[in-house]
Amino acid sequence: MMMKRRHLLGAGLTLAAPATLRAQGAPQFTFRLHSFSSPTALDHTLHLDPWAAKVAQESGGRIKIEVFPAMQLGGQPRDLVQQLEDGVVDIIWTVPGFTPGRFMGTEGLELPFMNTGLSATESPAAMEFIAKHLADTEYRGIKIIAVHATDRALVHTSRKPIRTLEDFRGLKLRVAGRFIGEAVTALGGTPVGIPLGGVYEATARNQVDGFLINWAITQPFRLYEVAKFHSEPPGVGLFQGMILTLMNGRSYNRLPPDLKAVIDANSGPALAADRGRIWDTQTKPAVDATIAAGNEIIAIGPEEKARWRTAVQPAYDAWIAEMTRRGRNGRAMFEDLQAITARHGRA
Description:
The structure is a single chain. With 347 residues, the chain is α/β, with parallel strands linked by helices. It contains 16 helices and 11 strands. It has helices spanning 2-11, 19-23, 42-58, 80-86, 104-107, 119-133, 178-187, 199-204, 215-218, 249-253, 257-265, 269-280, 283-292, 302-311, 313-325, 330-343; strands at residues 29-35, 63-68, 91-94, 142-149, 153-157, 172-175, 190-193, 210-214, 229-232, 242-248, 296-299. The strands form 2 sheets. Strands 7-6-8-5-9-11 form a 6-stranded mixed β-sheet, with helices on both faces. The longest helix has 17 residues, at 42-58. The termini are far apart.
C-alpha cells in the first residue's frame, strides 16, 4: 500500500519546492503529459514539445511539463482518459475514438460533410461547438488545452477504386470512431475497428479493403504502399478527425492565479487554430508521396458527393438520437453544428 501511495503521489502534481530551491530556478509545479504518439511525430515535434517548453518559459521556470510519448508511462491508448481523471497523469493527448462512449458529442464533429476541409478553420469551429454544448458534460472537471482537427480525411482502398456510391458495397473499411462507422454502414460498407499501428498490415493482408483516414498520417505510416486508390471530394475530403489535448482540472486548480494565466494564454481557440495550421502543412507532402508512388487520386464531383451526403443521413440520425438519449436536444445540437462549421468555412 505504501509503495502504491508513493507511486501515485509521484505521478501527478508535485508539492511546491522549498523556497531555497525556487530561488535557484527549480520548478514549483511539475506536470506529467502522456501521449500515445511517437516522439518523432509532428504531434510531439511541432505541438506537445514546443507547447511544454513555451509554458515553462512563460512561467519563469515555475511550471515544468514532463512529456512522455508512446505510452511510456504504461497502459494502452484507451486508458489515457482514465489516467487523466484518476490523477495518475496531469495532461493527455488523445482522440475521441480511443475511449468509446466517452466523447460522443465530440464525435459529432467527425461526421462526414460537417467539416471545412482545413484544420486551421475546422479547429476553432470545434472549440466553439465544444465550449457551447459539451464543456459542462463531456469535459466536466477537465481543462481543455485544445481540440484541433486533423487535415482532411478520405477513403483509401487497396484493390477496388471508389468512384460512385455503389462501389462501397461489400468493402471492409477501417474507421476510428462510432459515427464515421455508422456512415460507412450507410454507404454500403462494413466498418472495422483497428488501431492505427495495425492499419498497414491489415490492409496488406487483405483483412480490410481500405481505411478512412486523413492525408497527413498516410506519409509517416507509408500507407500509400498498401492503398492504391484515394477517393475524396477535392479540397474538403469526407470528414476531419478530432485531437484532444486535455488537462486534469484538479491539477490546473492547484496553480496560483498567475500560473493559471500562463496555462490559459497557451490554451483555447487560438492555440487550436495554430496547431491546425501545422497539420495543414502536412497535407501536400502526403499527397505528393502518394502521387510519386503511382497511386490514383479520385476526385468525387458535386453530384456524386450529394448522393453520398444523402446516403449518410442514418449516421446523423444516430448521433442526434445519442445526444437526445443523454438528455440534450440532439436536433438543435446538430443544427448548430452545421451553423458553426458553415460560419468557419464549410461549403
